[in-house]
Amino acid sequence: MAERLVILGAGGHGRAVIELLRDLGGPEPVGLVDAAPGAGAMLGLPILGTEAALPGLLAAGVRLACIAIGDNAARAAAAARLTELGFVLPALLHPSVIRAGSAVVGAGAVVLPRVVLGACVRVALLAIVNTGAILEHDVVLGEAAHCGPGAVLAGGVRVGARALIGAGAACKPYACIGEGAVVGTGAAVTRDVAPGAVVGGVPARVL
Ligand SMILES: CC(C)(COP(=O)(O)OP(=O)(O)OC[C@H]1O[C@@H](n2cnc3c(N)ncnc32)[C@H](O)[C@@H]1OP(=O)(O)O)[C@@H](O)C(=O)NCCC(=O)NCCS
Question: What is the pTM of this model?
């Protein structure tokens, strides 16, 4: 029997995770929990309540969880709570991902369809690599960071913990993006980005 998994977060990223799990064929999602659970279901899966439902699920043998929260800091905080409870957070990679043999992906990371992970890429714990992103050789995507859809991280780019790379952005080789920084949608990063900075445009400037 496939291992069972609960999804934390019944929003847009939760829907992406449900589709990923269906394409992957397991683990089997049993439902979702959310801070503000609506009644009913999402894509055919039951909404099981708030995090208060989690100990009961664990006791019923649901050992795995996926934190499907787009906000990076909130995802990291939720992961600490769930691992403390005893859940295991597997890395989830869509079957269409092209992953070099030397690329590594940390626990709780989610890698969505058609991503390319090149040689020696490191995707840290709880990171999200969104649809169609390309992480070239030696890229490091930090803990609970998020690389948006279609973004391109050229060789050797380093992205700090909880940073967000917006959809379609591109970062030049070996650029460093600081912890918690935000790179706007469509930006072209030609210089290092300071921790916590918000940059955008072509070339990217502080907004
Ligand atoms: C950069 C960003 C964080 C700014 O968000 P915000 O603080 O809400 O900013 P606003 O939308 O109020 O815009 C503020 C200014 O920045 C500009 N701006 C916003 N996003 C920009 C971008 N990506 N590139 C260039 N300029 C941008 C706006 O035009 C506006 O300029 P103005 O004051 O001259 O009118 C946001 O626009 C963004 O790009 N987020 C990335 C989201 C994403 O791609 N996520 C992927 C996950 S699916």
Answer: 0.97
Say how many Å lie between the CA of residue 169 and the centre of ligand 1: 12
Q: Is the CB of 201 under 6 A from ligand 1?
A: yes
Tell whether ligand 1 has an atom less than 6 A from the beta carbon of residue 74.
no
Is residue 166 lining ligand 1, measured as CB closer than 6 Å?
A: yes
> In the chain, what are the domains?
4-90 (3.40.50.20), 92-198 (2.160.10.10)
Largest CA distance in the chain: 52
CB neighbour list of residue 99: distance below 8 Å, 6 or more residues apart: 93, 105, 111, 117
How far, in Å, from the CA of 184 to the mean position of ligand 1?
Answer: 6
Spatial contact of 142 and 72, defined as CB atoms under 8 Å apart: no
pLDDT in tens, 57-105: 999 999 999 999 999 999 999 999 999 999 999 999 999 999 999 999 9
What is the rounded CA–CA span in Å between residue 156 and residue 83?
31
